[in-house]
Specification:
Radius of gyration of chain A: 7 Å
Shape of chain A: elongated
Helix content of chain A: under 10%
Oligomer: heterodimer
Strand order of the largest sheet of chain B: 1-2
Number of domains of chain B: 1
Radius of gyration of chain B: 17 Å
Strand content of chain A: under 5%
Number of helices of chain B: 8
Largest sheet of chain B: 2 strands, antiparallel
Distance between the termini of chain B: 44 Å
Shape of chain B: globular
Distance between the termini of chain A: 20 Å
Helix content of chain B: over 70%
Structural class of chain A: little secondary structure
Number of helices of chain A: 0
């Protein structure tokens, strides 16, 4: 699971 | 990036452009809720503070800047340049009833108790309900201009398309973010009544008028 703190969306 | 995300972003972009053009061309912000626009400016500001801390892509950076500039540009047009046309008598939704619960919820339910993360979470919660003053205004006046309806349709469609993006990402990338997903569902559901009216009335060339 990817890190939640990495927000790559707008 | 998948097709749903791209179409969602384009729909979002279309919405803010429609709104700016409507105000600019008609020299009027009649029928537009300044309170919703203040909330959207708060949403973009809180969420896009990461512009200075993390780089994702040129696309992300450009879009974030566009949304910030468009949002503050809209506020400028509404509250300064075309202030006289602002219909504040019908724009009476108490935004503290939205902002305060979002602040509390962001402090309680977040992925990480850090300033940037709480601001991001707050922006996600606030975005989901930021349109309520606008919908309240439409229901209060009982109608909306066609161009305002197109704006609302594009804005509502954007998060709806993000829901498909998240379904896709769950299966294709094993990526999901429950906070964004649940808020996105709430956000899209709030538009359902409007979507129904838009499809049954505005698309048939009629003005969006609520039944008396």
């Amino acid at each position: 699971l990817q890190s939640f703190t990495h927000h790559d969306e707008l | 990036m998948n097709i749903f995300r791209l179409l969602g972003d384009l729909s979002h972009l279309l919405a803010v452009i429609i709104l700016l053009l409507k105000i600019w061309k008609t020299r009027s912000c009649a029928g537009i809720s300044g309170r919703s626009q203040i909330l959207f400016a708060a949403v973009y500001t809180a969420r896009y503070l990461d512009l200075v801390t993390s780089y994702i892509s040129a696309y992300n950076t450009v879009m974030k800047i566009v949304f910030l500039v468009a949002s503050y540009g809209t506020l400028y047009l509404m509250f300064l340049k075309f202030k006289a046309t602002y219909d504040h008598n019908h724009d009476t939704f108490r935004i503290e009833f939205l902002v305060l619960p979002c602040v509390i919820l962001a402090l309680l339910i977040n992925h990480d108790f850090s300033a940037l993360e709480i601001l991001w979470t707050f922006s996600i919660y606030l975005e989901s309900v930021a349109i309520l003053p606008q919908l309240f205004m439409v229901s209060k006046t009982g109608e909306a201009e066609s161009i305002t309806s197109h704006y609302l349709f594009a804005l509502g469609t954007y998060r709806g398309l993000y829901l498909f993006n998240w379904i896709y990402r769950y299966y294709a990338e094993d990526h999901y973010d429950l906070i964004a997903i649940i808020a996105g569902i709430v956000q899209t559901v709030l538009y359902c009544d409007f979507f129904y009216l838009y499809i049954t009335k505005v698309l048939k060339g009629k003005k969006l008028q609520l039944p008396a």
